[in-house]
Design a protein that fits this description.
The structure is a single chain. By secondary structure, the chain is mainly α. It has a domain of 85 residues. The chain is built from seven helices and no strands. Helix 4 crosses helix 7 and helix 5 crosses helix 7. The longest helix has 21 residues. It is globular.
Length: 122
């Protein structure tokens, strides 16, 4: 995702009261500081692979908790929480496994949002 694409996505996201209500908690920030961004990145890849990448994820639409990990919060904030939201927000079709390029794209979106949230919390 280029900087221009990210800015366009953020402008679109700003029009969604639901997506805009998500922010990292103090506990999330502390967890990120304790574990480091490399660990959070690995967790993101793991969650994407297990909960989002399959063509028909278990409990699709309900597979991502609303809180409990910074990546979960990021998934809801960015529309990367389920396959229908991926379609609506990012144009990634459901009903087939995510490609490696799509997994990388989702990871980049999540990590960029997390980095922005951490930067704004200081």
């Amino acid at each position: 995702m280029t900087a221009m694409e990210w800015e366009a996505f953020c402008r679109r996201r700003e029009r969604s009261p639901f997506r805009m209500k998500f922010h990292l908690s103090r506990k999330d920030i502390a967890y990120i500081e304790e574990k480091g961004m490399d660990t959070i990145s690995r967790h993101a890849y793991d969650f994407i692979g297990k909960r989002l990448a399959p063509a028909f994820p278990d409990n699709d639409g309900k597979q991502t908790p609303m809180r409990g990990h910074p990546v979960f919060t990021a998934q809801h904030a960015t529309g990367c929480c389920c396959r229908s939201c991926l379609m609506k927000w990012h144009g990634i079709p459901s009903g087939r496994e995510l490609t490696d390029t799509e997994k990388e794209y989702v990871h980049d979106v999540l990590m960029r949002w997390i980095a922005d949230e951490c930067a704004h919390s200081r």
